[in-house]
Every structure is written in C-alpha cells, then in structure tokens.
C-alpha cells in the first residue's frame, strides 16, 4: 500500500514536471499578450503576476519580443519600487540593444539612487575609515551610473541629467572624464533609439 502510494506521488510529480517543461512558445507568447494588455489597462497586481509567470519561460519568446518583455519586466519592478529586481532586466536590454537610451536612463537613475544612499551613509559616518570605505563604494556606484546617464543625455538632453553627470564627476574627483564629456556626448549621440521594435 505504501509502495503504491509512493509510486503514484512520483508519477504525479513527473507528470507535473513534464507539463511545466513542455510549455509551448505559443503559450508563452499568449501570456505575453495578456501581460501587455494588463500593462495597458494599468492593472499593476495582474502585471506582476503575469510578468513573473513569463520570466522562467521568456527564452521561448522571439528574440525581439523577449527584449521588449525584459524592458517591460524592468519597468514592472521599477514601478513596484523594486529597483534591484528591475536592474538585471534593464541590463539585458542595454546589452542587447546598446543604442536604446531609455534602458540606459533607467539604469543610470537606479545606480544614481544607490550612489545617493551610499553618500548619505558616508556623510553621517563619524570615523575616517568608515568614510573612506563608503567613498570607495560611492565611486563604484557613480561609475556604474555615469555611462548610462551619458548615453541618456546624449540622446535626450536634459539640464537635470547633465548637472547630475557633472556633479558625479566632481564628487569622485575625475576631472579627466569631466573635461572630455562634451566629446563623448557628441559621439554617443550618433546612434540613438527611443523605441524597441518587435519586427
């Protein structure tokens, strides 16, 4: 009796596992369409549920659709105040479509927020060793933010963004990159995309 029950439990587990692995590309694409409809309708709770269901099977989406989904997943998490979850999705988009400056803007501001948080701790630290350690962390966060902010600035100039970029370079004592900023922005502005295509 025990052996028979154990056999049925194992059989059910194998069946469910096989079913989960056999999710078709059409099924994932259908979920993606539902996800986009929920986004359009502003149903944030539904967006999160649908998006998180797609994530494990996103590799079954066509490549350009997958990139669009990754951007939407990043936005989904950012809108839900989960920037750490948004980050890897935006990174995938920036790697796949480096000229899509919207993803760079999102990444730049997420890293900027991390830098500001470190700066706040650094400013309230009382001993020099702690301040020095936090400054090193601040420099790392700022250097992660800067290339993304620069691409965003090059493609969609903003007084606020350029001031942030200059401020970061001043705070990390990087006058060389600050002085070559105009040249870099001009170069970065040559290839800019503001819309992801699924075609």
Describe the structure.
With about 200 residues, this protein is mostly helical. It is built from 10 helices and no strands. The chain has helices spanning about 1-20, 25-40, 45-55, 65-80, 85-95, 100-125, 130-155, 160-170, 175-180, 180-190. Helix 2 packs antiparallel against helix 3 (about 45-55), helix 3 (about 45-55) crosses helix 4 and helix 7 (about 130-155) packs across helix 10. The longest helix has 28 residues, at about 130-155. The chain is globular, with a radius of gyration of 22 Å. The N and C termini lie far apart (about 55 Å).
> Low-confidence spans: pLDDT under 50, at least 5 residues?
15-21
Elements, N to C (H/E)? HHHHHHHHHH
Number of helices: 10
Distance from first to last alpha carbon: 57 Å
Share in β-strands? under 5%
Estimated radius of gyration: 22 Å
Structural class: mainly alpha
Most strands sheet: none
Q: Mean of residue pLDDT?
A: 89
> Which bin fits the share of residues in helices?
over 70%
Shape: globular
Q: Give a count of the beta strands, DSSP E runs of length 2 or more.
A: 0
